[in-house]
Design a protein that fits this description.
By secondary structure, the protein is an alpha+beta fold. About 25% of the residues lie in helices and about 25% in strands.
Length: about 375
């Protein structure tokens, strides 16, 4: 064990128990940090030794290679949140559990995060991935992100425009070695109504009687929907070891979307092109449903490949049933991706961050 003034750095720490997939090898070095100064010191410690750094939150959107990580893993355990119920301004430390924050804001009548209920992980990961679900993206409410810039060691605030948010993407994700997220400030709507623009959520609340659905009603409905898809981590659920959606919904051109629809009709998958689910995307693109494409490519829910498989509840989730390896999971992911490409000529992109490996679908 190496010990500095503020840090207790351990060697050869298993990472699998710290991820929701329960897969991956050990960290060469590992430290848990509880304040922003400790984050800075950990980065200096790594820089002095020429080590790569991996920032670890809840491990819910990360796939770690079987070889582990040959550097320093910094696990965020910072805490603290400040909520102004009058203005709706909320600031939370990167290490705060995400769903705890959502529950707190909903209980205070602050609208803007209710549809993001039940998502595992920590606050600091949400701007990196631009987390979204059921008609809300976290970028919709972010006012600023407090960061540590690794090259300079400086702390400063980034406004939304500098975060370069897009669908499940951000400047943080595209350049992971530049910034460490320290805290996030949100601008929520005091007394606001829940966001019910997503059809499945609106349908779930369509039978609601009495006053219009509240934020608590929306949160409850979202949690119920996520449980139905095994997208809430529940002990004993055979689908619980996953990263949620393994692939992003592909955004394609209008021409590509029409080609997919025509192919679906030709295959007899749908009766008419309009039956293929698709939605307008920013920039004039079209968003397709990755889950729909997977199931219509012959990959069914519950498919097993030994210790890994496709969730029995949602075709978009790949699960680890225990005793498996990251290599086996990636082999299954390529099988799924190849099936979609072969049938619809659409390439799927993994949503989680891959640590110690690169994504490469089988080339045909």
């Amino acid at each position: 064990m190496n010990v500095s003034a503020r840090l207790a750095i351990r060697d050869d720490v298993p990472l699998a128990p710290l991820t929701t997939l329960a897969l991956g090898g050990p960290a060469r070095h590992f430290v848990e940090v509880r304040d922003d100064d400790a984050v800075s010191e950990a980065l200096r410690w790594a820089d002095e030794r020429g080590l790569r750094v991996l920032i670890l939150g809840g491990g819910s959107n990360m796939v770690v290679a079987d070889a582990g990580f040959d550097g320093l893993v910094v696990r965020m355990a910072t805490r603290g949140r400040h909520i102004n119920a009058d203005t709706g301004v909320v600031t939370a430390a990167a290490g705060e559990p995400w769903d705890d924050l959502v529950a707190d804001t909903v209980s205070r009548g602050l609208a803007g995060l209710e549809c993001l209920s039940g998502i595992p992980g920590l606050v600091g990961a949400t701007p990196i991935q631009n987390v979204g679900a059921y008609g809300q993206d976290v970028a919709d409410t972010i006012r600023r992100v407090r960061v540590l810039e690794r090259p300079s060691g400086m702390h400063y605030d980034l406004p939304p425009g500098d975060c370069a948010f897009s669908y499940r993407d951000s400047a943080f994700k595209r350049d992971p070695d530049r910034f460490v997220v320290l805290n996030v400030t949100f601008a929520l709507r005091p007394g606001g109504a829940p966001t019910l623009r997503y059809g499945e959520l609106a349908d779930a609340l369509s039978g609601h009687t009495g006053p219009p659905p509240s934020l608590a009603d929306a949160r409850g409905a979202v949690l119920a929907l996520r449980r139905q898809k095994s997208m809430v981590i529940v002990e004993g659920d055979p689908n619980r070891r996953s990263v949620g959606s393994f692939f992003t919904n592909p955004i394609v051109s209008e021409r590509e979307a029409e080609s997919v629809a025509a192919r679906a009709v030709e295959l007899g998958v749908v009766g008419a092109p309009g039956d293929v689910p698709r939605w307008p995307a920013p920039g004039g693109g079209v968003k397709l449903s990755a889950g729909w494409l997977i199931e219509r490519s012959g990959i069914g829910k519950g498919l097993r490949r030994g210790p890994v498989g496709v969730s029995t509840s949602h075709a978009l989730a790949l699960v680890h049933h225990g005793g498996g390896s990251t290599a086996a999971l990636l082999e299954l992911a390529r099988e799924v991706s190849d099936a979609v490409r072969a049938r619809f000529a659409i390439a799927l992109t993994p949503e989680p961050t891959l640590i110690g490996m690169a994504w490469s679908a089988t080339q045909t």
